[in-house]
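User: My instructor asked us to take a sequence, write out its structure as tokens, and then describe one feature of it. I'm not sure where to start. Here is the sequence I was given:
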Amino acid sequence: MRVPSLGMTLMAATLALTAAARAEPTDEQKQCAATSGSLDQKIASCTAVIAAVPATPHDFAVALNYRGDAYLNKRDFDRAIVDYDEAIRLDPKFVFPLNGRGLAYHNKNQFDRAITDFDQAIALNPKSPIPFNFRGNTYRAKGRTDRAIEDFNQAIALNPNYAVAFFDRALAYQDKTQWDFDAYLNEGRYDELALKDYDETIRLVPTNRAAFNNRGNVYMNKRQYDRAIKDYDEAIRLDPAQALYIKNRGNAFRVTGQYDRAIADYRKALTLKIDEPNRKQIETALKELGVPG
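Assistant: Let's start with the prediction itself. The structure tokens for your sequence are:
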């Protein structure tokens, strides 16, 4: 799972919590708390704030949490955990480092430890949808799809405008379509539920290119190829450099017999940054279409 936006979310939330500062923050404090800019600069600034010995244990914990978030975004999960550990020790009721540490453990595939942190975050702030959504993603990673959906449901109940929870629940419904025996007994049910959640995600965040791409995938599964192509078109318009979206549209063109357009998309995708499994799939598809390597 990619985490850059999650770490920034935690930083922004902590910044809001501490906005009513008792004194004008220093430049180092501002850079430490900033939600944009260089992660290395953020780490350096937070380190300077920590070295200056903040006024209270909570202030100390806040600076450690900010630095932990920066390490999280750099995918330096072990250093992030060290900072979150100390922040939690200094202020056990400070919820943000629990969420951050849970994300770090999730990314280290230590799912049970992540769930324990999210459980504690929920106990401290049961009205927040964020740890429910995080925990749902961890249950999904463990293959406990129904338990994940329960958490996404709770996150949405707490905040009906929480777009990321609709997106993540749609992914869980797609998991059920692919892997759950119940999907064979209720053909098309989970595709429809996923579509509704992607519809809502797009309504809330019309620029969510991944939601358009994923909705296109659902339409492909339903053999509604024209609608799939329309969604891939929009995903590509929003992110023209994303090879995966172009490859997916190529697949849709291929299955509808539009071979020249499929070949053009496959060739375009190969000129962009793409992972090895998708590259091999495209190369195989081109060979099957009679295109020389």
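For the description part of your assignment, you could build on this observation: Residues 57-73 form the longest helix (17 residues). Try explaining in your own words what that tells you about the chain.
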